[in-house]
Amino acid sequence: MPEPLKLVRIPTLKTPLDFRNYAASLGIDLPCEDQIVTGAASPLAQPVAGVVINGKRVGNRWAIQPMEGWDGTTSGGATEEVRRRWQRFGESGAKLIYGGEAMAVRPDGRANPNQLIIVEQNKKDLAELREMLVRAHKERYGTTDDLVIGFQLTHSGRFCKPNDKFRMEPRVAYRHPILDKKFNVTSEAQVFTDGEIDQLIERYIAAATIARDVGADFVDIKHCHGYLLHEFLSAFTRPGKYGGSFENRSRILRDIIAGIRASGNPIEIGVRLSAFDFVPFKPDPALSQPGKLGPGIPEDFSHCLPYRFGFGVSQGNPVAYDLTETFQFAALCAQLGVKMLNLSAGSPYYNPHIQRPAAYPPSDGYQPPEDPLVGVARQINVVRQLAEFVKTSTAVTVEAEAGSGDSTLQRFNVTTLPPKISIPILIGSAYSYLQEYLPHIAQYVVRNGWTDMVGLGRMTLAYPNMLADAVEKGALEKKLICRTFSDCTTAPRNGLISGCYPLDKHYATKPEAQKLKEIKKAVGA
Ligand SMILES: Cc1cc2nc3c(=O)[nH]c(=O)nc-3n(C[C@H](O)[C@H](O)[C@H](O)COP(=O)(O)O)c2cc1C
Ligand code: SF4
Prior knowledge:
Layout: H1 16-25, E1 62-64, H2 80-91, E2 96-97, E3 102-104, H3 123-141, E4 148-154, H4 179-182, H5 194-213, E5 218-223, H6 228-233, H7 246-249, H8 251-262, E6 268-274, E7 281-283, E8 296-298, H9 324-335, E9 340-344, H10 352-355, H11 372-404, H12 407-411, E10 425-428, H13 438-447, E11 453-456, H14 458-462, H15 466-473, H16 487-493, H17 505-508, H18 511-523
Parallel strand pairs: 1-2, 1-11, 2-4, 3-4, 4-5, 5-6, 6-9, 9-10, 10-11
Antiparallel strand pairs: 7-8
Helix pairs in contact: 2-3, 5-8, 9-11
């Protein structure tokens, strides 16, 4: 019987050279600089040139990624837990902040009953959260002239649990041959009709108005992780105006942006995209024991080839990516005037190892099927390819607009030319597993144009000002470094509030911490 993978833990790699040698032994390209550069010389301290967002330039090269909360009120308003998180994000030093989190555009689109909802009745709370974040940033860093804040707008689609933490109420773009079983999709009535999507688009447009009213610089239209609009990008099998061709599958984004502009709302727009996907994974039953999850293996996909049920995935071999349509979508975003393209991968629900590489699995996951550094390198490498593509293709597009013909439009199958073209800022993801070497690698990828910005997710729950420490002191507080224990995912999957239970003392003393221990012990996560 094959042995589960034995991981080399990052803290055992004592120097950048050790790290580089280990990465080389895995056959991956993950350059790691020797020293953390401090002060104005740091590549991470440079403002983002070329793109102005709501009159501002983003003041440095790290972003706080959107992270859904599980601790709002049941009507989608703020609580002390939410306020604390936003305050910490403000103190982090990041100059691009995805709100604190994803907000549902309507109550039934929530992934949990305590997610924030961006509707009129919550305007006051959202305004206060933003002000608190801005104030915290100003107190610590002196200026907010270069601080850009946005809200991620979402409908959770297949993962909706709007009323009960343990009851799925999925709504989907199309019937999926593998995921339907896992997420309790049993009837055609759970598939959104075109008319329902038309109405949902109105909710996104209304949410963008609220975001503008409460002072957000931008809204991010979430197209990642298997949530609804991401699922529409792979709705190859869906009939009607939102399925089939690339044009139809990307229609929702075009209509939302057109609607926002038609309403006279000048708010800036970002898109977070799962740039690639794989089939769903599961713990290998042959290597699973009671109290111990097995390593991940792909679900059987032999009955659904060619695989037309994912975006950015090879239809012939759906455990490999295919970026053809990803490039096409990136070009579309540029043409639509999207200012920030934030790139992620896969889904935390069905293939978490490609989405948030971790040493320890969440309770509904599996042991790593590959060294998590392979997952980090995959995302970094894809963003690098996109950076090259976006820069060259948008240059062509600008020429096309200047009157040299419409070959780019034909090339990308995009039939409408929006009034404005911009080269979006690219933000990469999945850096937290790099742990002590995160600053060394972040410096390299920014310095060499592999990405414009480095986005941090889990690390900011554990150690919000990690990169501020790196740039200011050239040193990190080891005891705060996220070790990818996945408790911040396991807790909400089991109905508890999210947070960094192992490292953030705020959670360690809560009764939820004890419950979490019991849950983890039972499943062997
Ligand atoms: C608790 C938690 C909640 C998350 N919620 C969201 C979300 O609502 N929207 C989103 O785009 N990504 C979400 N993510 C994914 C992160 O933004 C990020 O892509 C991921 O954690 C990988 O980055 P990291 O290695 O820095 O953690 C979430 C991640 C975590 C850990
Ligand atoms: S619980 Fe803390 S240490 Fe574990 S993955 Fe989340 S942020 Fe990192």
